[in-house]
Amino acid sequence: MNIPGPTGLPDQEVVERVRSGEKGLYEILMRRYNQTLYRAVRSYLRDGDDVQDAMQEAYVKAYTKLDQFKGDSAFSTWLVRIGINEALQVLRKQRTMHIYTDPGQRAEGLTQLPDTGQMNPEQRTIRDEHRRLLEQAVDRLPDGYRAVYMLREVEEMSVAEVSQVLGITESNVKVRLHRAKIMVKDALLSAHQAGAAFEFGNAHCDALVAAVMARI
Predict the structure, then answer these.
(1) Model confidence at 95, in pLDDT bands (50, 70, 90)?
(2) Are 34 and 203 in contact (CB under 8 A)?
(3) CA distances from 170 to 2, 16, 159, 176, 197 (A)
(4) Domain boundaries in the chain?
(5) What is the DSSP letter of 154?
């Protein structure tokens, strides 16, 4: 799918133009923040279908509430808060229905990286195994720590942004992040970088954008 309109517009300008009736430009915001929203929601939900359902609901809700976005915080921060609320609603429904997710369950499509053609089969196997172990280690973190780790280390939000999104103090963010790093390091027996983990690939991105645009 081609993104309509100029993609280099600042978020606030895109929001204003969508409010003014250029609905198609909403796709710019979705493609710009699909990865961020995915990682935020994925820090609460394990099942791939639940994650994408929550993301879709978050985008639709954000679209219907664009008039409430005042620009006091970044659009991505505002969107992530909506996404986390949707994820928490899913968890509440699951608890009400006495549905408990297997802690070992994996969401589909997390460990598959695009093949750049620059790695031999052995290197690709080592890379994929490395990321699989990393994702497993992050999945085992307690909820409050996993969200902080995902947003700060994987998505590289600032401490202030994570504080806003999760509604905790910046000091608390730092403490949780420090402890989460220790837990991940202990699980892997070495320090790891998480920049490539939990990617929201192009096929997932296209499908989600199409589904949301069909609903708004």
Answers:
(1) confident
(2) no
(3) 39, 31, 6, 10, 24
(4) 11-102+200-215, 121-188
(5) I
b vs e for 49-66, b when ≥16 Cβ sit within 10 Å of the residue's Cβ?
ebbbbbbbbbbbebbeee
State how far the Cα of 141 lies from the Cα of 43, in Å rounded to an integer: 10
Q: For 87-153, what is the HEC assignment? A: HHHHHHHHHHCCCCCCCCCCCCCCCCCCCCCCCCHHHHHHHHHHHHHHHHHHHCCCHHHHHHHHHHH
User: The pTM is what?
Assistant: 0.69
Which option is the CATH number for 121-188: 1.10.10.10, 3.30.450.40, 2.40.50.140, 1.10.1130.10?
1.10.10.10
What mean pLDDT value characterizes the chain? 81
CA R_g for the chain: 18
Residue 109, Cβ density class (10 Å: 0-12 exposed, 13-18 middle, ≥19 buried):
middle
CATH class, domain 11-102+200-215, is mainly alpha
More reliable by pLDDT, 119 or 107: 119
- What is the predicted pLDDT for the residue at 193? 46
pLDDT tens column, 111-152 = 333 444 566 666 666 666 667 777 888 888 988 899 999 889
Cβ contact 169:163 at 8 Å: yes
Nearest to 74 by CA among 39, 40, 35, 33: 33
